[in-house]
């Protein structure tokens, strides 16, 4: 049978044969992609028709070097499969070079090409040279490369470098192209066409631009080194995995929140009060015990609420009642600045927390099973820019640890259980939860009665006028007992987790976090109730806000001391016992749940004490810095990698969520109730003599309205927005709605991606069906012939 004719409707410009193509009629420029698609389709149909009419001897000859996945298919079927777009992507360098040559030509003419209506028919663009991509016999690879070099020379240096970066070729090919460009760029004619400068001033300007660009790239390369703990975090992640790394990343996040809070309080409250100190009071001598108790020398200092004055700081007659000096142009009201700074800092911290939680939801709750992640990690994880031996070793350890986590996660999902086994696990877990909640109740009752007892002991010691050292020792007893409970109970919960035998280490960490969180939050709730009831153990009766600040300072310091003791005895001493006494090649594992809950507990204490101790965030900053280096050193020297590797893809999201809702929300409720409802002290502090702390804002608004009647709108804003609780509930509802909608958007995106994956799988099945039909057609034609 005769082969069907192949008709390619390609318009050519016959006048330009043998000549260099002009910018208007080059083959790279065309007006319709549909025509090019028709051309490719006609080529494939022509090849298919030719194969259908092949003799029997050609059909029976096997195609060399074909895979086993299509064994049994005829050579015609295999050739059509080999010409599919999915089989030819990335195979031909000539196709890539031609594609980017065409793209370069389009980029060059984007600004200089005249409208198509103004051109003659012979000068309009055609598809004359698009057969370079489909027929390799027309042009060799060298011709295509020379054409690409010619097009790149016509671009500006910025466009040229951007195009070379985007070409999907190897580094050797790109280096060859750059050498050819640098070799051909030196001719005066081409430099004149590009408008390159030849004057000394122009050359100096060009070298200055190159120097500035090199300096900028050098600064960008130093950016990772400027980031805090960049190398340390990489080292931890490569050796211990993402689960342990999540703790140190969370610590870094908390450090950022505390630095932000400290800077606000320092600029608007602490620094100004230090510049205008109140009347000097009798200071006690510094003995060193104040570092533990927070009392003594620190009582009348910038550390606590009672030191701050209730006057306008820069007013010349603030200390002298019979003074006739003029009022300052910008009076600074300390009570108003104190309450507004605390309120604004909490509001901005809330916005940062919501933003961090929303971004963490978008990054963590992503779609992709362990199989796809495993393939990406195997084939695409290596960074070829790494050349130093130290970083190569670090990256190889990181990839190996991530592969272990992915394989462990995949293995944990494929473990079926029998119904009897599931029922047994449910009964054990219910009993473990009952025991844990019972211990929480017992600890809370013990803390309550012990606090009442210590309050009575303090009153008795004050009435008997006992020694100062004894009174300060009594101040440390309640924080010592609470910190001892917080340090001992997580080990009991670890024993319960061992009894429960969790298969998934992720669920084990989540359960431990929930149990520890319930214990710490309930104990803190009881302490907040006692602080607001004025049942606080204090060294003086002058200002109850200062006593609360001292109590919170002692809790923060005692929590840090017990963290150090737990690190020493739970990691260092236990490692020595395992290695020296028990002769085991085993080290303790890093307890993520307990250490994370210690961070959340310490941060909650800091937020609770901002109103009563403005410099408490500075104490927390020092504590976090010391904790990072101590924990990192102990981790590297005393701990081993997790025995069950697991991927902490959502761990950061859980940590931020726990920090936001139980911790920050509880602290915000406590401070809001204190500002709106609790009466401040009568003799000290910036709000002395007022019914509530919030009344300072009302007083300032009334004074402002009397001094300037034209700003009555500000009074309306204060009355209907700040005093109205509906506005506060509305703002809180908006923030919660933002979080909710962000979660729903992420879930919707996950569902859409899941549907798209199903559609891709269905299209693959459709291709298999069509290939089978095509093979049956060949078999039928073979039988007929």
TrEMBL record:
Residues 54-71 have a biased composition (Basic and acidic residues). Keywords: Membrane, Transmembrane, Transmembrane helix. PANTHER family: TRANSMEMBRANE CHANNEL-LIKE PROTEIN 6, TRANSMEMBRANE CHANNEL-RELATED. Pfam families: TMC. It is found in: Membrane. InterPro entries: TMC, TMC_dom. The keyword Membrane applies. The gene is TMC6. It comes from the Eukaryota. It is a multi-pass membrane protein. It comes from Apteryx mantelli. Residues 1-29, 54-74, 106-131, 178-198 are annotated as: Disordered. Its main location: membrane. This is Transmembrane channel-like protein. The chain crosses the membrane at residues 247-276, 336-355, 431-451, 472-489, 509-532, 552-574, 605-630, 651-676, 726-743.
